[in-house]
Amino acid sequence: MSMFDPQILTLAEKVLDAARARGQMIATAESCTGGLIAGALTEIAGSSDVVDRGFITYSNEAKNQMLDVSSESLARFGAVSEAVAKEMAYGAIVASRADVSVSVTGIAGPGGGSAEKPVGLVCFGLCQIGESPTAKSVEFGDVGRTKVRRQTVQTALEMLLEALED
């Protein structure tokens, strides 16, 4: 029995198959999900042929030390920002053997939100080797910590799949 729901596992399998088809490796850079994206990918037996590594960078210090996210970006935009999500995704490519990376940084709740950055806001980054990183923000709403994290994993896997099928 898996700790992930069948929909997430099906999506993770599609991501792994797409990476295999392209001969590409994957890395994740996670804050609010605490490793759940890498966990979903590695829940599937045989994933080691395309999953290189995951970075769990919950603190700003970890983002800076492990992924080379600039202190200036963290101070200017905050950890939950598209700028930081892009730097996380890029940093994961640089610090790994991966060809594609996804990053997430957000406010899962129940607290920690503000008017500008409400609970349920997650910033996603995506980087493919040789390309500039991209980012997008999604507001899932104040739907509870577990649901925000689950929806974040799903969205991140969808982004990886789209990039690998492109």
Automatic annotation (TrEMBL):
Pfam families, sorted: CinA
Domain CinA C-terminal, first and last residues per copy: 10-163
Superkingdom, taxonomy of origin: Bacteria
Coiled coil: none
NCBIfam families recorded: PncC_domain
Protein name: CinA family protein
